[in-house]
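Let's do one together. I've listed all components of the complex below, 830 residues spread over two lines.
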Amino acid sequence: MVEQAPAIELKGISKAFGPVQANKNISIRVMPGTIHGIIGENGAGKSTLMSILYGFYKADAGEIFISGKKTEIPDSQAAIAAGIGMVFQHFKLVENFTVLENIILGAEDGGLLTPSLAKARKTLLELEHEYGLNVDPDAVIEELGVGMQQRVEILKALYRQADILILDEPTGVLTPAEADQLFRILDRLRQEGKTIILITHKLREIMEATDTVSVMRRGEMTATVKTSDTSPAELAELMVGRKVLLRVDKTPAQPGDVVLDIKGLRVVDDKGVERIKGIDLQVRAGEIVGIAGVAGNGQSELLEVLGGYAEATGEIRVNGQPLDLSGRYADGRSRRARGIAHVPEDRQREGLIMDFSAWENTAFGYHRDPGYQSGVLLNNAAIRADTEAKMGRFDVRPPNPALAAKNFSGGNQQKIVLAREIERNPDLLLVGQPTRGVDIGAIEFIHQQIVALRDKGKAVLLVSVELEEILALADRVAVMFDGHIMGERLSAETDEKELGLLMAGVSA
Amino acid sequence: MDFLTFVQLLDSTVRLATPLLLACLAGLFSERAGIFDIGLEGKMLAAAFFSAAIAALSGSVWLGLLAGIASSMVFSLLHGVASITFRGNQLISGVAINFLAAGLTVLIAQDWFSQGGRTPSLMGGARFEPITLPFAESLGAIPIFGPIYRELISGHSILVYVAFAMVPLTWWILFRTRFGLRLRAVGENPAAVDTAGVSVVGLRYAAVIICGVLCGLAGAYLSTALQAGFVKDMSAGRGFIALAALIFAKWRPWYALYATLLFGLFGALETRPDVIEALFGIRVQGALLGALPYVMTVIILAGFVGKAIPPRAGGEPYVKER
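Okay, and this is what the predicted structure of the assembly comes out as:
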């Protein structure tokens, strides 16, 4: 039997951005009809590599072979012509166009739309038949759920007759059920002979969905292995370069007194939509309570109310004393005075001012600290020294307090925020998406810090869309769906399947 | 108010709406592609001057029109280079163009003609003359339809007919052609266009150039058809009213026609306070009517009459993400 040519073969691809070598001499072979995973930490160079393949960047060196033929890909047009389709992490759809209009955009036949649309409608029906990808061609994108929108992206690629499909972090916005559905679709595509490259940082997806997997670290391809021959622990080690604890090492919780007591909380947003529809929740000293749920089901609003920047009705007590919910006396300062610290969900928008230095960011919210004062002025030297000490304890790299927040990596930005909040020794720590966009090495450290605070007898309320993180970190899990708490479970007594059902609004 | 006065009022509505309509459609092309353009005013002014000046010098209004369009396109490309190629702030670039045009036109006019910043009065072939449509006189005797045909429909310059024909044409281009689909897409989500393998920069330049041509027509109309020659600041805020009309029209071609006709009517009433007095028995200050388009735009923007959602990528330079 003659050996089949690989669908994609990269030879010695290198790409530098200034002094940063994003890709170093990368070679990879992807066989047709397989799902090939590429895994690596943020900044490992996965996205750069795929951008080169899709014609966004030109490689400094190296060659690309598509089905054994050397191919130049100077732009996206060439990539499409070579049969490569890409599904980006953030969808590239025109929100107020219909599905059909989005599908033909850039791939129209001729100058007039009517015949193009008619042809696309027919082709779409065929694709639907072939791959089981049904979607209403006349639906407007913004009225579709994310799972459907992703399907439109896949259809877009198939309409352009892509044989090679690249998916960049495709499950980041999906519920577990939607993700399962996506993997079923990918499996079907593979059976039809398509080649799929799956970029992800989730080990579980690699293990479940791929045939082979390549690991990237700091711009280099460290290994390519058959998925069936490896294990999550081995992959994690290859990604980080050292052994990593995938499970958070923690002792059973010793819950004490109730610190946070929420009763009948309702939140109506500024458009008049009720986002939280009457919830009750308690968090005790010495325990971590995780709020699971697909983004947009009221978790963010809960954090905003507790953090003091949204109005609500109902009752919240902290250490037995009521909190003001009217918005009049509710602000970050008074919340902090009550022993509440907040690590917001969106650190770049709510947690930090990206153009300000690390020491300025460390002072925010605590700038009235007597230790930071020098008469009527701020004692900048003291703040800097304090920041430097905190950066040391939280292993922020580089430990330079004068560096602007935007110049730190995602993980280090998060550590700056965490250091600021945790070191104030709060009674209640609110944490939103603590490890979003954070690499594995830093995730481990951040989880350890949160557990350490719990072990000091503090209460932690954790909001995360990563179910794995909730299960690993929380002692108790409450699932939010459509403004309600669908149910509470002890993490030790539940699993992803049960929580996934609750997240989808199915009450057990 | 008799019927003939009414028809005459509508007639001047059409005349005054024409430059607004052309400028509004110019803005529509640009803003639908994601390039905000507050430089409509400046481009109209430049085109008004250059078309009057070249028409005066050459004696040909058609050469004048070409010069007007060319000057407007130069400013358009300036805006394009600043906001597309160099990803500058589109508002600042637009403001600069308005100031540049206001100063340059008067300066060059004084240098060329030494008449205090105006061009000589245009006569004969240096002006767009009204076109009398066939049978205007013979049909004029028919009641109702006759006067409407003779006074309202017939007797405008060619640019008026071009402006009104541009409305269905713009609609057709935007909603029935590949170019229109891509143009609208680039104003909503340029990343979608880019990843589909279509040039964002190319589309936006095309939009800006179309905007320049239409502004050129609007400006030429002002100085060679509506008036006979250029005077200082003769665009008189029409570029801004056209922008207001664009918002009022929610960036749609047919609505743009209705909005500019409405604003044209206010303009026509401004010069005929007697009509309002006859109708409502109150005397209204002309200036008040002049301010109405702005007032109505504020009301629209405040969300009282439906929602005006601008193209989502409007005003944002496109930077390819990593």
